[in-house]
Design brief:
The chain folds into 2 domains: 6-95, Nucleic acid-binding proteins (OB fold (Dihydrolipoamide Acetyltransferase, E2P), Beta Barrel); 115-416, BirA Bifunctional Protein, domain 2 (2-Layer Sandwich), CATH 3.30.930. An 8-stranded mixed β-sheet has the order 6-10-11-18-17-16-13-12, sandwiched between helices. A 5-stranded mixed β-barrel has the order 1-2-3-5-4. Helix content is 31%, strand content 27%. The longest helix has 31 residues, at 231-261. It is built from 12 helices and 18 strands. The two termini are 36 Å apart. The chain is elongated.
């Protein structure tokens, strides 16, 4: 008999269902099991007098065991799980589980030690259903606009941007590094005439950060596009893409998100509000008494980002906020500058920075000069060569899918990832 998923079962027919035993209640004359597969759960009701052959099986069964059950689906309005139950005719134990190593209320780090068990829950599965919908929506949005998907190398010969915060690895007879971003190769694609590209792939940051939003490895969603007039073209595209993607998530998962996470999916209106960094700090001081520390001049702080959400909602009725006009020393050397001001932005969502984007410097001589100013001339020579033989004006951005998921559901970054990597976690 062909397997039927729980979501597809209908009353008054015989089916084969397979999955994990999520709950077990064994009484004198009756036994109740909850079986869960990837699509949902169903109650299995066993009358021991009618089926004495199941008594030993039920005694042996443990929570977490995997079973195959053939039986008839019957309507029963008293059953909370969809008003239906499975009356088994045959039960096969495929895998008998040892006692589970943690309780339901265990702390997050303990659950991460046994991540594969913690992920069996409906609530955990929703995280990745949402992340899949987000990624697919953004991918479709770009494909419909003529973008190509590429996959760039993660083993590179030189540090991605500055030589700090990178993982160094042995590469035969020399050193290599894990890529901080696909930035340089995205721009190589512009020099190759691809004009519009995007990539979804791993990104590595050797930062000893222990915050609720930092990781040493995450999944990045990056794009680059040619023949732009300014970085405002990049901002417009990103806003349209995020609004489109969140609309898809809202249609497909809003009910489950609100039920399991108590969070509403808000589809942002276009255009997103924009403010210069200097003006933002004037507003934060005037409204909330926040003064920027001297050491952070020209950039944002965690506290300022959180207050920026409050400001954006009060002033614009919006959860998103573009911030522009950062100090040159706080931006990457390859950002184009106009009158000394980097032509780029940060995008804040729900009080957290999710994107840094910019128009890139495509003029070979200017780019080489900006690299030399940072002492990076020889380190990035392979990169500057991309621009020596002609390159169109271009720009792009990168955002973290895990952080996007974290903010959408209101959870810790460790939960938003299939497997978290941080300074103190390299397993499982």
């Amino acid at each position: 008999m062909k397997r039927t998923l729980v979501r597809s079962i209908t009353a008054n027919r015989s089916v084969l269902v397979q999955g994990f035993i999520e709950h077990k209640r064994n009484m004198r004359n009756m036994a109740f099991l909850t079986l869960r597969d990837r699509s949902g759960s169903v109650q299995v009701t066993i009358e021991k007098q009618a089926h004495p052959e199941f008594t030993e099986i039920v005694e042996r069964l443990t929570v977490g065991s995997v079973v195959s059950i053939i039986g008839e689906i019957a309507e029963n309005p008293q059953v909370k799980q969809g008003g239906r139950e499975l009356l088994p005719e045959a039960i096969t134990i495929e895998s008998l589980a040892a006692p589970l190593p943690f309780a339901q209320n265990a702390n997050l780090d303990t659950r991460l030690d046994y991540r594969w068990i913690d992920l069996r829950k409906e609530k955990a599965r929703l995280i990745f259903s949402v992340q899949t919908a987000l990624t697919q929506a953004m991918r479709n949005f770009l494909l419909e606009r003529g973008f190509l998907e590429i996959h760039t190398p993660k083993l590179i010969a030189a540090a991605s941007e500055s030589g700090s915060d990178v993982f160094e690895v042995d590469y035969f007879d020399r050193k290599a590094y894990l890529a901080q971003s696909p930035q340089f190769y995205k721009q190589m694609a512009m020099a190759a005439g691809f004009e519009r590209i995007f990539e979804t792939g791993p990104v590595f940051r050797a930062e000893k950060s222990y915050t609720s939003r930092h990781t040493t490895e995450f999944t990045g969603f990056d794009l680059e596009m040619s023949y732009i007039s300014s970085f405002e073209d990049v901002m417009t595209l990103e806003a349209e893409m995020l609004s489109y993607a969140l609309d898809i998530v809202q249609k497909e998962h809003s009910e489950s998100i609100e039920r399991l996470y108590g969070t509403r999916v808000v589809v942002p209106k276009l255009p997103f509000p924009v403010i210069r960094l200097k003006d933002l700090y004037i507003e934060l001081e005037r409204r909330y008494g926040y003064r920027l520390p001297e050491s952070e001049q020209g950039d944002t702080t965690t506290e300022a980002e959180q207050l920026a959400l409050r400001f954006s909602k009060e002033e614009f009725g919006h959860e998103f906020l573009f911030v522009t006009d950062f100090a040159a020393e706080k931006r990457a050397f390859y950002h184009m500058r106009k009158d000394g001001v980097p032509q780029g932005y940060d995008l804040l969502w729900r009080g957290v920075e999710i994107t840094t984007g910019a128009q890139r410097e495509h003029r070979y001589d200017v780019l080489c000069k900006q690299a030399e100013e940072r002492g990076l001339g020889q380190d990035v020579k392979f990169y500057t060569e991309f621009f020596r033989y002609g390159c169109p004006p271009h720009g792009g951005f990168g955002l973290g899918l895990d952080r996007l998921t974290m903010l959408l559901l209101g959870i810790n970054i460790k939960e938003a990832m299939f497997l978290f990597r941080g300074p103190n976690r390299l397993t499982p």
